[in-house]
Design a protein that fits this description.
The strands form three sheets. An eight-stranded mixed sheet has the order 5-2-1-6-7-8-12-13, sandwiched between helices. A four-stranded mixed sheet has the order 4-3-10-9. A two-stranded antiparallel ribbon has the order 11-14. The chain contains 15 helices and 14 strands. The protein is globular.
Amino acid sequence: MRYIIIGAGAIGATIGGRLAESGSEVVLVARGPHADALRTNGLRLTTADGERVHRLPVVTGPAELGELRPGDVLLLTVKTQDALAALDAWGDAEVAGGGTAAQRLPVLCAQNGVESERLALRRFARVYGVCVWLPATFLEPGVVSALCAPLTGILHLGKAAGGADGTARRIAADLEKAGFGAPVVEDVMRWKYAKLLGNLGNAVQATTGPEPEPAKAALLLRAVREAKAAFAAAGIACASDAEQAEARDGKVEAPAGVVRGGSSWQSLARGTGSVEADYLNGEIVLLGRLHGVATPVNDTLRVAANIFAREGLPPGAMSIEDLTALADEAAARA
């Protein structure tokens, strides 16, 4: 199988680089200065094993790659706000022997949140979800680090509509050979909804900084309580804390003393102009509005993170006291 990594950032480049190290054929899809750096200098990937430079094929879109192969796997790792454009572009790409990628090839949605699978299922016949536990950092074009050990990350995968199949198991085997845990599960979206709860704090990190503080933990807890109430009202199940701990503890340990900004913090640091908040906190706001659950904290976090991205504010420029005050005001109005 050839893996086409659509969005070779923190997650995509780490997965692509590790797959290449273990012998899989990989193509990186990137754009702008990052694509230029990957082509000129290669992918500089640092893991717990040290730094390596990978010289891999790099394209900006399907036209540059040419006709796809029947055995290709599309790994979607762009942020969710960029998923629709990527799915449309690659879904229409022709596959050798006839048909399009959307008709014939598997697409794996390895992203935070739960929206990309829904977007993909409208377009692709073969859609898989991936629950990503992979702390990684991408702040400089061509340079990515993922320092956890003994596994680089854990990637639960399964069919987005439920179930598992031989394709998922073959991909999982390649991922495990590359240094990841890759459990194949029948209920991958249940794992992704559980991961979403933790990602509600991405907006807190982005606006107030990644350093841990009790006040930040308290605000995140309020956001998670709203989310659990919305899940209950919507009848959505998610993996328990105990299940997640059993799957992860002792397997993806970060180096002691390392404070890492999450994906939204990194987006602000790179000045991308957008963050995932509409598909993280915004997912909870959507569920709340559909099922009559108040979600003022999540809406506050969504709005604040988007303002930071839109106005180009530096990550961490707001105090947690000011952010909490905004959430308190919203809660009083709810």
